[in-house]
Amino acid sequence: MNRSLTALFAAFEAALVVAIGIGISLAPLTIMWAAQFGFQIDWIVFWRASVDIWLLGHGVDAIFTLDPATAATLGLAGADAAFRVTIAILGFALLTVLLGLRAGRRVAETKHLLLGELAAIGTFGVLSLLVTLSALHPLARPSIVQGALLPTLIFAVAVVVGSLRARVPATDAAIKPIRARITSWLAAVPRTVRLVAATALRGGLAAAMGVVTVAAVLLAVLVAINYAGVVRLYEGLHTEVLGGAALTLAQLAFIPTFVIWVAAWLVGPGFAIGVGSSVSPLATTLGPVPAIPILGALPSGESSFGFVGLLAPVVVGFLAAALLRPGLVQSLGGRPPFRWLIGAGLGMGVVGGLVLGLLSAAASGAAGPGRLAMVGPDALAVGLWAALEIGVAATIGLLAAPRTAPAEHTAEKTTTVTPTTAEPTPSAPPTSAGTPGESSPITPR
């Protein structure tokens, strides 16, 4: 595949990612435009709404202004003024990451990896800017700079990671000097520091993803247990079939955001649904809650066993360290100094806290006017608590088992048999007779 075909192929992959991301919300909205509104509203309204949803899913801030009738219906203080929405619908960002990983693997199969990556990222950035400009409206105005940069940054990271994880080795001559420079730079770092840093990075990421996994399971359990409350909220909204389907799709897009909320709950600080509210392992204080069916799964009041959830990051951090410990100890010679193990454990805490803190920052912000200006977890508190819990648990996990002795090449024990000296037996005098059964010669006299 020549250069022009590689660039065209990569640009098509990027355009496909943008089309899928926007089309997920545009398709049901278009059906609603035809079936429920009878084509009486300009379709561009639904296009702008889909683009706004896609941009919000990548962390782009947007300023909304409600018409007086809608503001009065909400009954929230400040609903009649312009308000900013900063919370991310992380389902769309997750979709971009998955599709970006796929695009990176496909681009890595070409002979011009660097050109393909630049073409894909550049095309995505241009399309992201264009769709942002197409969604500008006095009542809903996303940030132009963030709309061009944030989705592109997420896609670029996914493409690079996908190309690095491709099974097909890249043959692009332009990549080799870059890789050689990175390899030489890493080789200049002391080997022990590299091993400890790699263990801290892998362990911290594993611990953070472990907490998120536990949070996803716990969210599913809460929805299953409080299914009746979720159904009551659906019935109270009196939505038609299309409205209920659109609401369900919107909640599915918010599922990754809700999972991060539950992860913040497991870490300890919890999260808020409006100013003055708090949902934590020890107690839940809620004010007026938006009529979103999935919020019917929230616990209410004090929980006698809520503190058990705080064990999740501790156990996950300990297990991650225990699994990585044998490889680290063996790589460090069998008897590494305690300071390296402690450094690796604390590094795991820093990485895990940083990851969970960044995820909490993306899953929090303003979701509407009035008291909805503060929704989600406190990113700084979640990051600090997660770093402390994972770091202490990981350090204990690395120090818990006794240090193994270095492998020594010992000589095999051989059993030497001391030969016993047999006493010489007196030789028998020669006889003229031969051995029995043999005829002896007769010596003549």
Automatic annotation (TrEMBL):
Q: What phylogenetic lineage does the species belong to?
A: Bacteria, Bacillati, Actinomycetota, Actinomycetes, Micrococcales
Q: Where is the composition biased (Low complexity)?
A: 413-437
Protein keywords: Membrane, Transmembrane, Transmembrane helix
Q: Where are the transmembrane segments?
A: 81-101, 113-136, 148-166, 204-229, 241-267, 279-298, 304-328, 340-362, 382-401
> What superkingdom does the record give?
Bacteria
Task: Specify whether Transmembrane is a keyword of the entry.
Answer: yes
Membrane in keyword set: yes
InterPro entries from the UniProt entry: DUF6350
Protein name (record): Integral membrane protein
Residue segments, region Disordered? 405-445
A Pfam family hit: DUF6350
